[in-house]
Amino acid sequence: SGTTGSLVAPSLKGLGRRGEGGGISCPTIVSRSQWGARPPRSRVQLRTPVPFVIIHHTAGNRCTSLASCRQQVKGIQNYHMDNQRWSDIGYNFLIGEDGRVYEGRGWRTVGAHARGWNAKSLGFSFLGNFSNRAPNAAALNAAKKLIQCAVSRGYLSRSYTLKGHRNVNQTSCPGNSLYAIIRTWPRFKA
Ligand SMILES: *[C@@H]1O[C@H](CO)[C@@H](O)[C@H](O)[C@H]1NC(C)=O
Ligand SMILES: CC(=O)N[C@H]1CO[C@H](CO)[C@@H](O)[C@@H]1O
Ligand SMILES: [Zn+2]
């Protein structure tokens, strides 16, 4: 529709084609400039490859299109920077039910997503509340590809351990329904 077209800048061309991303198994990654990120106040470099990947949910609204996921991600960045007073959006990457991955702090910057674990992990967060409902197949596939992508690009150790946020802190994150799924994935260890 015209409304959607007006929200999609020329630099977003190509994002409609899934499966691109430069690597064998990398999902489509919407860069910070493509979703309209604010610059971070500061950055601490992540020492890679890290041994852990930690899965979260945002516990907010779900999104199933590029336009609605961009709005969600912008809102989360504003909340983390303005209310939490963090230097940037907390997560390394976010995953939408549009099947796309949204770059947060990215591969090379320490996140703010799991206290005590940020410097040794990548934090991936599904956009939505997955307490009573599982993410759709597009989001689950994008997350699995993102993990493979992290290994193939050398940011995540080949012998990595997968965890849910609740495994490292007192929280319901990433929601019961999503947690029940990730605990069946390769290399999960509570
Ligand atoms: C997530 O969903 C559960 C179940 O519907 C609900 O109890 C909880 O309050 C929701 N979380 C937030 C942050 O809205
Ligand atoms: C061990 C650990 O990381 N504990 C933290 C869990 O989260 C609460 C706040 O939600 C912190 O206060 C703890 O330090
Ligand atoms: Zn979490």
From TrEMBL:
It holds the Pfam family Amidase_2. Belongs to the N-acetylmuramoyl-L-alanine amidase 2 family. Residues 1-20 are annotated as: Disordered. Gene3D superfamilies: Peptidoglycan recognition protein-like. Residues 27-169 form the Peptidoglycan recognition protein family domain. This is Peptidoglycan-recognition protein. Residues 39-175 form the N-acetylmuramoyl-L-alanine amidase domain.
